[in-house]
Design brief:
The chain has helices spanning about 40-55, 80-85, 125-140, and strands spanning about 5, 15, 20-25, 30, 70-75, 105-110, 115-120. It has about 160 residues and is of the alpha/beta class. A hairpin with a 6-residue loop joins β6 (about 105-110) and β7 (about 115-120).
Length: about 160
């Protein structure tokens, strides 16, 4: 059974079967602004490891030549990538503006307009991290996997 992002729904991001509005988690690369908060950079690296735990595939971080789908991670207050997406009207941050520790997960094209992307945006560093951990949780990584040895649900994709 495969695992894919469900970019058509806002509540549930994970689909058990591939469809028109999905792409493979194992085929995605992760992109973040190296000038973003340290917590955001750490969350991106933890997501990379979580995807590896689930699929056995380690996504590339900040890909330069990859053509596949992206997971873009950034805070609204510091990420240049997120600011480009907002300026290009590819994402709207009204739901998290002026809030603490809020996040949203949306689908969009990357800043070049070519690659499908799941965009995890937080109102601040902690909000961004919470959004990343929500994706990991929905994909099958329990927040208790490290502390209580809760097994990770592995899947091919």
């Amino acid at each position: 059974m495969g695992l894919a992002f469900n970019i058509a729904k806002s509540q549930s991001l994970i689909a058990e079967r591939a469809g028109d509005n999905t792409y493979s988690l194992s085929a995605a690369s992760i992109q973040f602004d190296p000038n973003d908060h340290l917590a955001v950079q750490t969350a991106a690296k933890l997501l990379q490891e979580d995807i590896f735990r689930i699929t056995g595939q380690r996504p590339e971080l900040n890909p330069s030549l990859s053509n596949g789908p992206l997971i873009i991670i950034g805070s609204a207050d510091r990420s240049g990538i997120i600011k480009k997406l907002v300026a290009g009207k590819k994402i709207n941050l009204t739901a998290i503006n002026n809030r603490w520790e809020a996040f949203q997960l949306t689908s969009a094209k990357d800043p070049t307009g070519k690659r499908p992307s799941l965009v995890i945006t937080g109102s601040d560093a902690r909000g961004t991290a919470f959004g990343v951990f929500e994706l990991s949780k929905q994909a099958g990584v329990s927040p208790w996997y490290w502390w209580a040895d809760v097994p990770v649900k592995t899947r091919k994709e």
